[in-house]
Every structure is written in structure tokens, then in C-alpha cells.
Design goal:
The complex is a heterodimer of chains A (about 270) and B (about 290). Chain A is mainly alpha-helical. Helix content of chain A is about 75%, strand content about 0%. Classes of the chains: A mainly alpha (about 270), B mainly alpha (about 290).
Amino acid sequence: MRARFGLDRPIHEQLVVYLGNAVRGDFGTSYFHRRPALEIIADRIPATLLLMLTALALSTVLGVWLGATAARHSDRAADHAITIGTLVGGATPAFWLGQVLVIVFAVNLGWFPVQGMNTVRGVPDGFARVVDLLHHLVLPATTLGLLQLALVTRLTRTGVREALADEYVRTARAKGLRPGAVLRRHALPNALLPVVTVVGGHFGTMLTGAVLTEIIFAWPGLGRLLFDATLARDYPLLMSIFLIASASVVIANLLTDLAYGALDPRVRLR
Amino acid sequence: MSATAGATGSAAGPARSTGPVRLLRSVARSRIGALGLALSGVVVVLGLFGGALAPADPFVPTGAPLRPPGAGHLFGTDDLGRDILSGVLHGARVSLLVGAVTALMAAVVGTAVGATAGFYGGATDDLLMRVTEFVQVIPRFFLAVLVAALFGPSIVFLVVLFGLTFWPGTARLVRSQVLSLREREYIVAARALGLRDRRVLARHVLPNVVAIVLVSGALQVGAAILIEASLSFLGLGDRTVISWGYMLNNAQPFLRSAPWLSIFPGIALVLAVLGTNLLADGLQAARDRPRA
């Protein structure tokens, strides 16, 4: 058994062998599943991606709207309420928020299922299956989305506030544009640039949030896999998850930089 | 400006003793800063004395299991009949320890790296910044999970790991601050007078980056508390001490029957992190405010 996984060799040799294989795309074989680690991870990525993209879409649309609203009504009740909300949201851990949502909406109100991605007994076919999936997606996506929402709202608010005080906004107002048009056409596009940077830079945080959210809701993605791998002491799998997570953070940062160059004509990448 | 206080040398002595008091007063002037100070103060007091204030040992059953909040057990009891209030009070210690040590280590390493890179520039700067960026992209939570799984859950490992991975943010802020300070006239003057680099850095540069280090330090306390809680929630926390994350892990099977297992430790966690985040905002505001 030890010889089969190469565990009889000295630790530095194991490391060299591991790194050599990893460079060639071989991340080792899971002790528990007895399949290549990369293959197991690839199976789980769609579920995690679905959760993250839904949460990202929800938080971006809502966050930009809330942030812009707060900035337009600067220092009034709406602004204060939104600011307090973002502060509390920014301090709330994903797993506790998930637990609270389960207590309120799944246990007490019974609106949504507590766990899972599909109904366990009698998975329906066709369109009903999609509805079932979406029904299961609501609470986890809300959990992850609310955390991201705090960040997006806060950044949008600051950005729009600064933009609204700028000269070109005064010009736009002076030529008679309505406040809504000034906001949408002139202030928002500039205010959203830092949002792109920071949200892209927070990919790692969001992935962490997704992992914890998945564990609360038994969502069959990377997080669940990570949890099971720690319990099973499945080191090749754990190591691979860590490497994939690191690589995805680097790629997210790169894409953010490229997006920034494309969105802002003043930025030139050399 | 503190720069003039530093330049006169002997005046720095008394100025330093009143510095923290003046800073705290300045932070407390904004409502956000005052609330942040109050909440952070409560966490510090609970972290130091919470064990003494608690009615019971958080690991010893003192009542019937899963008793709802009420007389005798203000926050109720868990599945083993352990007092939740005692757990919440004792749990502050882990959060305080992890947060404070992380911020301290990050401040020391980050300031050293950032100040060296910004002050000397050139190849030193390039090398240090590449290392900084490398460390910055490591996903801390995943690394912490890996380390806990490989070497066993231990609070010492965790704190060291945080200290080694939280500094890049501080280093980058300090570097950019030092880059702009380096060209100021009083620094150029100090160097022209023939002061050694170390003395210029210690006396004239570093006093001006203290505020920015404090702001990022306060944010790191909150971030470190959250990651520790996440690990404990996964069952990868130190089992020898009670923590809010461990209590939330314990609450997961009882969300239906006994939600108070989750509610109270969660609120404690949110208030602690909120407090340090607000403190960071207050410090930032105090730094931006023109001095009277």
C-alpha cells in the first residue's frame, strides 16, 4: 500500500515527484476515491460555478442599484440604512448567515428546502427539474450573494459619490440632463471601474464563501469535496484543491487586469 | 505634524506618551469610530476576563440538554447540556488571540518589507514586491485548511500561518506611503545632514506610516477572526479551547430544534468583526481629518 502511493520514499523525493507530475497536469490519485484528483475536482466545478455566478449576478445588479441609490440620497435615511446594512453584511461569516437563513426560511417558514441541489426522492424530468434546481439554489445563492452585496454596494456608493462631485457631471447637469440620465450615462460608468477591480481581486474571498456556503446547504460542489477530503485525510485531493484554488485566484486577477484595460481607455497594458 | 516632533528628537519622548490617547480621542469623535472602539473594547475585556465572568465551564454540562434561553441559562444549553453563555464568553479569548497576534505580526513584517522596498527602490523594491504579490495571491483559507489537515488543528500553527500570509496588504500600503515621503523636503534634508538610513527611517519615515498600519491592522483583526471561525466551523479548529466557530459547528445539526445554539455565538462573532471594521473606519477618518 505505502509503496503503491510512493509513501515509502523520503519526503523530499516525494515532493520532487509530486511537483514534476503536477507540472504535467497529474495532480495525484485520491486515496479515498481511487481516481485522479483532477478528475474528481472537475466533476464538482460546475455546481460551484453555478452557485458563484448566480450570487455574483445577484450581488452586482442589486449592489450597483443600492450603492447608486445611497449616493444619490447622500446623508439621508436611505443612505444611512444602506451603509449600516453593508457594514453588518461585511462582518457576517458565510456559514452563520447560511444557518440563519435556514432557520428563518427553510425551518420556520418552510419556503425553501434545507439542503441539497435536487429533491432526493423522485427527481422530476425536463422543465420541472430546472425549477427544482432553482428552488434549491435560492438560499445558497442568497447567502453568498448577500456577502458579496456588501462589498459591491459600498464601492459603488463611494465611486458614485466622488463622480457626482466631478466637473463633467456638473457639465452634464448644466446642459439640462435629468438626474437619472446623469447618473446612468455619466457618473456610473466611471464609478464602476474600481468595483470591477476590487470584486475581481476578491475572487479568493468569494471562493472561500462558496465553500462554506456549500457545506451548510450540502451543495455538491468543491466545498463539500474539501470538507469530505479533510475528514478522510485525503492529502492528494486536498493538495489539488489548494492548487486549483490558487491558480483560479491568479487567473481571476489576470482577467480583472485585462478587463480594466478594456473598460478604461486611459489604461494601457504594456 | 508628527514629522516636526520627530525632527526635534528629544520632544519625541513626551509626544509619544500622549500620542495614543490623542489618537483614541480623535477616533472617538466620529460616531462610527466610537462604536468601533466600544465593541472592540468589549472583545478585549471579554478575551482577557471572559472566563472569569462566565457562570460555568464551557466544556462541562451544567443543565438539561437543549434547554431554550431562560432563567439559569440565559442563552440556553447545547446538546450536551453545556451553558451557551459561558461558551460565548470564553470563546472571545480565541478570537482576540488570533486577531491580535495576526495583526501584530502582519504590521511588523509588512512595515519592514514595505518601508525597505519604498525607501531603497530599484532592484530591492522589485524583488520584495514580487515576493509580496506571490504571498498575496495565496488563498489563506485553503492554505489554512491544508495545514490543519496535514499537521493537525492547532492554534499556534494557525496564528503563525496568518502572520506569514497577512502582511502583503500592509507592505503595499506602507511602500506607497514611503515612496511619496521619500521625496519630501524634510527627508531630503535629513539625509543631506548625513543621518544614517536606519535613523532616517526610524525617526522620520516610520512615524508617518503608523496611521496607515493601524487602519490595515484593524481590518486584519476582523479578517483573521473570520477565517479562524470558518476553520473551527469545519471542525479544523483547536479542540482544546472553546471558540465561536466550534459552537457554530456544533449548532449545525440542531438548526431545526434548537436555533439558539447558532444565534448567540453568531451574533458575538458578527459584533466582534463589525467592531474592528468600524474601528478601522474611525482610524481612517481620524487620519484624513485635518489636525486642529
